[in-house]
Write a structure and sequence with these properties.
Number of helices: 0
CATH superfamily of one domain: Jelly Rolls
Strand order of the largest sheet: 1-2-3-9-4-7
Radius of gyration: 14 Å
Structural class: mainly beta
InterPro entries: Bacilysin_H2HPP_isomerase, Cupin_2, KdgF, RmlC-like_jellyroll, RmlC_Cupin_sf
Helix content: under 10%
Protein name: Cupin type-2 domain-containing protein
Order of helices and strands: EEEEEEEEE
Pfam families: Cupin_2
CATH class of one domain: Mainly Beta
Length: 112
């Protein structure tokens, strides 16, 4: 972290990784309290049901995903967003090629 408190900015974001088939991830910016991550998904990608202690905001930039949590399901399209509290089990699947911005608080050490 430099004197301004900036850890990463869009001009020096981390490289793109492929943590699982059908998904690309890029950490765009973070500090110890907050993290912005871009995910892109191929049609048919389905993430495993999971939970984490971080609160998460999900914003769909393009495409369509199905998000499931607490026995409910939402089909989200470009411009849609939702918030998931930390500790809530959830999963997502891409119904078409999609780009999603995820914001986590605090930042995810496993992504940094």
């Amino acid at each position: 972290m430099d004197e301004s408190g900036v850890v990463y900015t869009a001009t020096n974001a981390t490289g793109v990784t492929a943590p699982e088939s059908g998904m690309l991830r890029q950490v765009l910016a973070y500090n110890p309290h907050l993290m912005l991550v871009r995910h892109t998904f191929d049609t048919g990608w389905k993430g495993a049901r999971h939970s984490h202690p971080h609160h998460q905001m999900v914003y769909v930039v393009r495409g369509q995903i199905r998000f499931q949590a607490q026995g409910k399901s939402w089909d989200l399209r470009a411009g849609d967003s939702l918030v998931v509290d930390g500790g809530v089990e959830h999963e997502a699947a891409a119904l078409e090629p999609s780009e999603v911005l995820d914001i986590f608080t605090p930042y995810r050490q496993d992504y940094a």
